[in-house]
Amino acid sequence: MIEFATLATFVPGVLAIIVAPGPDTVYTVTQSLKSGRSAGLITGFGTATGVLVHTTAAILGLAALLRTSALAYLVVKYVGAAYLLYLGVQMFRSDDQFDLQTDLARRVLSKGGRHQRL
Predict the structure, then answer these.
(1) I need a labelling partner for 23 at 20 to 30 A (CA). Which of 1, 17, 47, 62 fits?
(2) Helix (H) or strand (E) holding 113
(3) Has residue 50 been placed in a domain?
(4) Residues 11-22: what's their mean pLDDT?
């Protein structure tokens, strides 16, 4: 049985971590402001799916396997690094530009059908 003192310090710490906004929350809010409600819902669904996959993998023992097998850890680490490099190269090759001006900002700042630049 867990001691009360341990539980009394653990629960508030866990609650603080759960309530604090993380990168997934910031990303979801950013996409919602940038592209609207449906994009925010899709982004939230995607991040929740990622958390579900991570939790399922941990439950199935991937964490234990990676902890005990140095080779498995290296494989996952290098595959992850290669994937991040791939994403970075794709971002630099893309013609899309990062635009902070959202549709909402354009509507608010528009005058007489013409848009002002932020």
Answers:
(1) 62
(2) none
(3) yes
(4) 86
Per residue in 38-80, pLDDT tens? 999 999 999 999 989 988 988 888 778 878 888 988 998 999 9
Q: Which of 60, 82, 111 is the last residue of a domain?
A: 60
Amino acid at residue number 117? R
Look at residue 117 and tell me if it is in a domain.
no
Q: Where does the chain show beta strands of DSSP type E?
A: none
pLDDT reported for residue 109: 63
Number of domains in the chain: 2
Per-position b or e across 48-74, b if 16+ CB within 10 A of its CB? eeeeeeeeeeeeeeeeeebeeeeeeee
In a domain, 102, yes or no: no
Is the separation of the CB atoms in 73 and 91 below 8 Å? no
Q: Would 36 be classed as within a structural domain?
A: yes
**C-alpha 66: how far from its chain's center?**
23
- Domain with 90, as residue range(s), is 68-95
